[in-house]
């Protein structure tokens, strides 16, 4: 049962500050948890940056996708496409969407309904190999353009192996800009290609986001999110490497980035001259 306790605390040896504590074990746990979270937040606020491990990055990415998917009432796959197009900036996605949903859908290729009438014929013609095939072997993105699974697999495999451009995959029909999202990748790519794709997606979250960067230390897989605008860019990764978040050279406070860049240029020119 709840019991209201009145605790009196002496402050500066003279003033008595009464403190009311609602005594309930579950509440105490919650209070401790929230104050621990506050301490963590205060710490990163004080430092002006947060070091992110892979699990933190995934968690943040998932949270952002959930936020956009809930607020705009769209699927997680569509929310991911939107976020990637707006450099993972959640508020930018919300602003643009509510200002001009139609325009945003158009530019990122999120169609509300198919652009081609799907006939109910038993056989359909693939738009790449032109084979007439049973409709269950034909797959389409939201636009409805029909392609056989073999052609889709080839198309998806080539783009994934070409690099991170696969994250902005569109329908193979040259006149169509319908986005091809992770649901299609899950259906049609090999296990290894799916792994590559999700790797690119994770990297994109750090590399396309203006507030995050990878730690430049060789072999380090942590990222640093920068928050403060105090003009001090020195950060210290948990791998122990200290670097300037702005220019990613070694920490160089109080010298500014431009001076450091000139100095590095001068040094490399000098060492080139020494080789002659
Ligand atoms: Zn085909
Ligand atoms: Zn299409
Ligand atoms: Zn590091
Ligand atoms: Zn710098």
TrEMBL record:
It holds the Pfam family UBA_ARI1. InterPro entries: ARIH1-like_UBL (IPR048962), E3_UB_ligase_RBR (IPR031127), IBR_dom (IPR002867), TRIAD_supradom (IPR044066), Znf_RING (IPR001841), Znf_RING/FYVE/PHD (IPR013083). GO terms for biological process: protein ubiquitination. Keywords: Metal-binding, Repeat, Transferase, Ubl conjugation pathway, Zinc, Zinc-finger. The keyword Chloroplast does not apply. It catalyses: [E2 ubiquitin-conjugating enzyme]-S-ubiquitinyl-L-cysteine + [acceptor protein]-L-lysine = [E2 ubiquitin-conjugating enzyme]-L-cysteine + [acceptor protein]-N(6)-ubiquitinyl-L-lysine. Its cofactor is Zn(2+). Residues 122-276, 126-172 form the RING-type domain. Its EC number is 2.3.2.31. GO terms for molecular function: ubiquitin protein ligase activity; zinc ion binding. Pathway: Protein modification; protein ubiquitination. PANTHER family: RBR FAMILY RING FINGER AND IBR DOMAIN-CONTAINING (PTHR11685). Belongs to the RBR family. Ariadne subfamily. Might act as an E3 ubiquitin-protein ligase, or as part of E3 complex, which accepts ubiquitin from specific E2 ubiquitin-conjugating enzymes and then transfers it to substrates. This is RBR-type E3 ubiquitin transferase. It comes from Corchorus capsularis.
